[in-house]
Amino acid sequence: MTEAWARPPSVALDTNLLVYAEGEGDAPRCAAARALLGRLEPAAVLVPVQVLGELHRVLTGRFRREPAAVREALLAWADAFHTADSSWTALQSALDLHADHQLPTWDALILSVAAEQGCRVLLSEDFQPGFTWRGLTVVNPFASLHGDPPHPLLQHALRPQPAP
């Protein structure tokens, strides 16, 4: 008997997307983040644990939210999507990305965890759009706010919009 094939997550999320989805930031990005997350198949989405740690820091630090409320928000994100811990191998890759491409170390760790998990897309406005490494491409989820069409890899990951 063969086991059912489980498809790995194909889209990884960066911290900025979750910050906007939490309602922090300008209204167009907050609305776009929520709409985008609503169109992604939850089983296809990965949130690196590093992202949840950064989200905690941003929400409790910059936006001064109560730690208990932030904990609940983080648990809800972890319930909604796959999570992945950082590994020693991912950190080694992040160090290479930092040295070879001048990426900030913690951003590079998010990128390397997503690639390690087999994701094809990292949704982030903090990286160079189109940067590709180990089959993972960085896509700016807010490009449509500037009139750009969705990246083909992102378009492929989106569920069809419901009819009005």
What would you give as the CATH superfamily? 5'-nuclease
Order of helices and strands: EHHEHHEHHEEEH
Portion of residues within helices: 40-55%
Strand order of the largest sheet: 3-2-1-4-6-5
What is the count of DSSP helices, taking H or I runs of 4+ residues? 7
Mean pLDDT: 92
CATH class: Alpha Beta
CATH fold-level topology: Rossmann fold
Shape category: globular
- Beta-strand portion reads 5-15%
Structural class: alpha/beta
CATH architecture name: 3-Layer(aba) Sandwich
Description:
By secondary structure, the protein is an alpha/beta fold. It has a single domain (12-157), classed as 5'-nuclease (Rossmann fold), CATH 3.40.50. It is built from seven helices and six strands. Strands 3-2-1-4-6-5 form a six-stranded mixed β-sheet, with helices on both faces.
What would the keywords be for this entry?
single chain, 164 residues, alpha/beta, Rossmann fold, six-stranded mixed β-sheet, 49% helix, disordered N terminus
Write the layout of secondary structure elements.
Layout: E1 11-13, H1 15-21, H2 27-39, E2 45-48, H3 49-62, H4 67-80, E3 82-84, H5 88-101, H6 105-116, E4 121-123, E5 132-133, E6 136-139, H7 152-157
Parallel strand pairs: 1-2, 1-4, 2-3, 4-6
Antiparallel strand pairs: 5-6
Helix pairs in contact: 1-2, 1-3, 3-4, 5-6
